[in-house]
Amino acid sequence: MMFRFDSEFRAEFRQNWFVLVVAFCCFLFGFAAPAFALPFIYPEVINEFGWTREQATLLASSKYAVGAVAALLAGRVVDIVGAWASLIVTVAMGGLALVSFLWVDSLTAYYMIGILLGFAAGGTMVSLKVLISRAFNTSQGSAMGLALIGTVTGSIILPFFVVFATEAWGWRTAIAALSGGIWLVAIPLLACGLFAKTMAFGRRVQAANRVKVAKEDSLGHLIRERRFWVIGGGVFLVALVDQAFMQHQVLIFNDAGIPRDLVAAGVSALGLAGILTRVLVGNILDGTSNKGLAVLWATLSVSVLLAFALLNPIIFMAFIITRAIGHSAVLIDTTVMTKHVYGPARLGTLLGFYTALVSAGFAVGPWLMGKMYDMSGSYTSAFVLFAILPLIASAMIWTIKPEYWLSLRASKAASRESQASTAGAKS
């Protein structure tokens, strides 16, 4: 079944709606705010300090590099202290980083903030993935898609706020003001979750329960399995392609001769389409697991091929739609597949590892596409390679057996048959 909205599905949302509210706010204030603030910082520090573009934009490089390491560390920490406590720490780190821009006076201090932002971003993403995976069983893909609308909301609202605040108060105060949502909304909500009796799934796992994890579920055993690296290789490849197009999309549109106003409309349309596609993709993954993911990843290849003829209005809109679907799949894939394959055990450690691989793909993709462009003078060779890579990833993920997901489906089918036979006996 491709789409799901049955009684069990709805029951999970009624029971765990608070988790969605918290996750949405954390993505909006604790993740999107620091991420979307960076492009507005670069011209200000260049003008104030006379730094080069390379020096200014290296802040993002330091953030993403540290983010990969932070994801690995955060995954292990979440398994020990719980998602609520981990989120309070990582989201607060993001708030402190934003406030720290008030006192930046050197490149050293500037890059140290980038490191702090990296720990905050990597840790927050992994912790939210674990929290949602533990709260939602039947509908975790749809839940993750809904929570990720927080990042879309941030991409639409925050640029306008930063521009207005910079003109009114100056860039330092404007960036620091973005932390207001963290201190006033996100952290109080996280504190409520930490102490709420009904939110125990997000707290520290008791030592006695951790001991129960079977030897075959230990990380040392898992990394020797073929499926562990097949999933990792797949998410790395699609992340590489996705972020390459994300960072080069304006340059690609310009090279295609698309008018500037249509370029701006296309970028905005991609963000708006993400609101629908995040929920759509999550629901598809809930109902189809790895097979559906293979098809969704293949839409990245379709979008790459469409990029050869962007001057055609119909093809341009098709490109926007397929890019939105593929991008949403990249954002949700690790959350769903990790639990579908391995179950609830070791979620933090596994999601930390796979999130680190996604971050690595994000770092390599834009550089590789730029390098191939510089070597040939066009995007043609890059497009050919980047159209093939998602198909390889799709073939890889198609071979994975989602054992936990299949066991849940078998259990539900048996339960329905039992209920039907009982009802038949009574009649």
Key phrases:
427 residues, Growth Hormone, Chain: A, single chain, 84% helix
> Would you report the number of β strands?
0
Identify the CATH architecture of the largest domain.
Up-down Bundle
Structural domain tally = 2
CATH C-level name of the largest domain: Mainly Alpha
Mean pLDDT: 85
Tell me the number of helical segments per DSSP (H or I, 4 or more residues long). Answer: 17
State the secondary-structure class. Answer: mainly alpha
Strand percentage: under 5%
Major sheet summary line: none
Instruction: Sketch the topology as an H/E string, one letter per element.
Output: HHHHHHHHHHHHHHHHH
- Uncertain spans, ≥5 residues at pLDDT below 50? 207-214
State Rg: 22 Å
What is the percent of helical residues? over 70%
Shape field: globular
- CATH fold node name of the largest domain: Growth Hormone, Chain: A
Question: End-to-end span in angstroms?
Answer: 30 Å
CATH evolutionary superfamily of the largest domain: MFS general substrate transporter like domains
Gist?
Helix content is 84%, strand content 0%. The protein is mostly helical and 427 residues long.
What does this structure look like?
Helix 7 (149-169) runs antiparallel to helix 8. The chain is 84% helix and 0% strand. With 427 residues, it is an all-alpha fold.
Question: What does the secondary structure layout of this molecule look like, with pairings?
Answer:
Elements lengths: L6 H9 L1 H33 L3 H29 L1 H18 L6 H29 L4 H8 L1 H21 L1 H7 L2 H16 L11 H5 L7 H4 L3 H30 L4 H47 L6 H30 L4 H30 L3 H19 L4 H24 L1
